[in-house]
Design a protein that fits this description.
Elements (H helix, E strand, L loop, with lengths): L1 H29 L2 E5 L4 E5 L4 E3 L5 E5 L4 E4 L4 E5 L4 E4 L4 E5 L4 E4 L4 E5 L4 E4 L4 E4 L5 H10 L4
Antiparallel strand pairs: 1-2, 1-12, 2-3, 3-4, 4-5, 5-6, 6-7, 7-8, 8-9, 9-10, 10-11, 11-12
Length: about 150
Amino acid sequence: MHHLLKYKSKSIKMKKLILIILVLTGINCAEAQTLQSSKYGTIGYIQSDGTIQNTSYSTIGYIKEDGTIQNSSYMTIGYIKNDGTIQTTNNTTMGYVKSDGTVQNSNYYTIGFIKEDGSVQNRNYITIGYALDIKKEWAAVYFFFFKFQ
């Protein structure tokens, strides 16, 4: 009987540990990535599911898994194509995000850069913000192509 109680106690402790790990993992996965100004002030958030929020955590837009960009009313305002092309709803190209983080307008003129360290720079290499651990295309949509204010 003593072995049975000892086993049950270990089993309950193990279940609690697994539950704690799952809860902490879930919190970490749902955590928003912060968008910052050049002076490191928070200007917004992008959730891992593509929800774009302002500093008050009010939703101001969405970037869907399929690349659809929506405003806060779920109205489609653009698209991110698989090749990094950013388009409006009428399929007019607004620009491009290259794999190296170079951001170009529709005429292939470089308008900025999304760096590996999360810094966002304008065409003159002046840092205009930070988007650490945010997909390059998502950061470009926020900083260069659509105004989510």
